[in-house]
Amino acid sequence: MSRHILHVVTNVSHYDDPDHATGLWLSELTHAWKVFEDKGFRQTIVSPQGGKSPLEPRSLTFPNYDKTAKAWRADSERMALLETTLSPDQVDAADYEAIYFTGGHAVMYDFPDSEGLQRISRDIWERGGVVSSVCHGYCGLLNLTLSDGSLLVAGRKVTGFAWQEEVLARVDKLVPYNAEDEMKKRGARYEKAKLPFVSYTVTDGRLVTGQNPNSAKATAQQVAALL
């Protein structure tokens, strides 16, 4: 049986200020996709609303716009996957062994309170599957409760885009909240690398999280190793 991975992407295209565009950070999808593809895993993409996932403009510039991201954009079939993502009500969680929340600042808006994504994630986790995220994808874990009402992240080690990285990226005035702080408020044991923007991945049982875009490949490799 081939393992089946569910990638989660955003539907949001801008910050609160519509003059500032955001969206999916493409390489966070493409790096993981390649890792899973090389393992022969099946892969599907879901978003909170279904349909189109816009791309983060900054992810399409040097040095973020790498070989895998360029190849994806040059492939009409792959780009079509981001125009026709499934909605949560089209997803049967029993079909998947892992869920992988991608990032981009846009996810800060539509990941945390998506009941559909929470249902899928909870089902995968409670059946013994892997829940994972990279960068801002961990916003999808902020309010994820288990059947007993407890927060998945409470007491568990996690990482994700650090506040220091928001400041260095000059978006600290644009983001709707401090994700690192919100994660700590929920009782998560937040960790980060000593230096910003370097690859850093944390595994706590079946929970795998990566800190930033450069962590996507290592995060996916850890998910694959668990599977």
TrEMBL record:
The UniProt entry's GO CC annotations, sorted and at most eight, read:
cytoplasm
Ranges where the DJ-1/PfpI domain occurs: 27-223
Instruction: Give the GO terms filed under biological process for this record.
Output: methylglyoxal catabolic process to D-lactate via S-lactoyl-glutathione
Give the SUPFAM superfamilies listed for this entry.
Class I glutamine amidotransferase-like
Q: Name one Pfam family in it.
A: DJ-1_PfpI
What are the UniProt keywords, alphabetically? Answer: Glutamine amidotransferase, Lyase, Stress response, Transferase
InterPro entries under this entry? Class_I_gatase-like, DJ-1/PfpI, Prot/Nucl_acid_deglycase
| Record GO terms (molecular function) | glyoxalase III activity; transferase activity
Assigned protein family? Belongs to the peptidase C56 family. HSP31-like subfamily.
This chain belongs to the protein called: Type 1 glutamine amidotransferase domain-containing protein
> Which source organism does the UniProt entry give?
Flexivirga caeni
